[in-house]
Amino acid sequence: MSVSGESGGRAQQMRRQAKEMEQAAERATDPQERQRLMEKARQLKEQSEQHRSMGSGDIDPMV
User: How would you class 32 by CB atoms within 10 Å of its CB: exposed for 0-12, middle for 13-18, buried for 19 or more?
Assistant: First the structure.
């Protein structure tokens, strides 16, 4: 598998995890737990976007 394929797969996995965390946050009864899960989901989405961009060659990792 190519590096871009691996990055894309990792980004997809992170987006899937973020969605699962959002769903868990919706089910959480504790407001602090809900907030923690939503924050973690947001971080995973940001990381997945970075991986996806790097895999497609949009970002020069040497900069």
Answer: exposed
Phi, psi dihedral angles at 52 (to 5 degrees): -65, -45
- The confidence score (pLDDT) of residue 5 equals 62
Q: What is the pLDDT of residues 10-42, one digit of tens each?
A: 888 999 999 999 999 999 999 999 999 999 999
Give the C-alpha separation, 21 to 58, whole Å.
28
Instruction: Say how far apart CA 11 and CA 48 lie, in whole Å.
Output: 4
SS3 state at 28: coil
Residues 7, 51 contacting (CB under 8 angstroms)? yes
